[in-house]
């Protein structure tokens, strides 16, 4: 797959190389707050669970709205075709393709209009296709499909709009208390702008940072002060100003997310910044920092199905590679090495041995392989085609790794990179991967660790099962025309 080469040779001491583990730590844009525990003590933060939401049952209300709209659309079916199974199929398909109500607290009617109409059209087209496939006598007339589509889409927009309108009214009366994390001067400016925009549904109550004499909301500098603010104000949202603040306060933000707070990253640098949403005019995006993700089930199912099928498919090839390696290079066909996986837990990574380090210490602390031309021809072929990485499918099947995720690294380099590059440690929120977003963007081998970290965290924050499929397809294309790494 698209793995880095990390076996035996010191990294060149080129000043242009940003991947060097010996690079000096970079200064952040602001001093870390004293509430952040030292590395390895992330469990020191424990905040009380947040009681949510202000309007109970919003997701349930949206689910009911979609079901009712589908039933109203089914009324367009004629008496002869209004079979319970057909109606059930329409409701089921409509719920499968329903808009995810997830990230925005209360989107407007116009915001959801394209998605509702598009997915309703998909539901009715799917229903028409299933009915036609069942038998010629069940084909739905075009007029019936169009009428049902319009009725269901209009009803869905009206019902969902009513739910969101009630939600917005409640947020206007009782906005979510929020903490702003970041450089105090910038955080106070953002907080003041949000307070001037009550329609945002957020009310900042404090700043997490180092006091610098700027007037405004109270500045919280200790863990006890943050905890007191969470309890007394019922903090339910966190606004992170700038990427540096997010990297420096990773443990604090994750603890707040685990307590039930929604974490948003704001860009206060000016106009023209891409964003998922806008908060008081600032570009922002929702961060998912809680360790338990409901998407894990789908991701794990994809890992097991694909890795199991691939292992069965390529087992003859693995046997041939192992046999040739044993005959040409002697014993020790499988290379085992400790890597760091999810939540910092070590695991043993497997691959075919293509190079023999002098000893275990060299294997654990040397960056990449030089003098590749001195390898045997078959070993060079394995590395160039990434066939030596196929054994990691067993790591995926066991659950040590995932098909897609940040590439795992050795403990020696994880310790150095975590101190040198902000956000590097946050890559370990998920299972390590055989390939990842960084790798399909060419960040393999001796490339920028900072860039890899940024792509890996972007992948985690914006995760979707479809994104995993896209990365796997791009990886497959890259393997068809291998260039080595």
TrEMBL record:
<keyword id="KW-1133">Transmembrane helix</keyword>
<feature type="region of interest" description="Disordered">
    <location>
        <begin position="1"/>
        <end position="29"/>
    </location>
</feature>
<comment type="similarity">
    <text>Belongs to the bacterial sugar transferase family.</text>
</comment>
<dbReference type="InterPro" id="IPR003362">
    <property type="entry name" value="Bact_transf"/>
</dbReference>
<dbReference type="Pfam" id="PF02397">
    <property type="entry name" value="Bac_transf"/>
</dbReference>
<dbReference type="InterPro" id="IPR017475">
    <property type="entry name" value="EPS_sugar_tfrase"/>
</dbReference>
<feature type="domain" description="Bacterial sugar transferase">
    <location>
        <begin position="299"/>
        <end position="480"/>
    </location>
</feature>
<protein>
    <submittedName>
        <fullName>Exopolysaccharide biosynthesis polyprenyl glycosylphosphotransferase</fullName>
    </submittedName>
</protein>
<keyword id="KW-0808">Transferase</keyword>
<keyword id="KW-0472">Membrane</keyword>
<keyword id="KW-0812">Transmembrane</keyword>
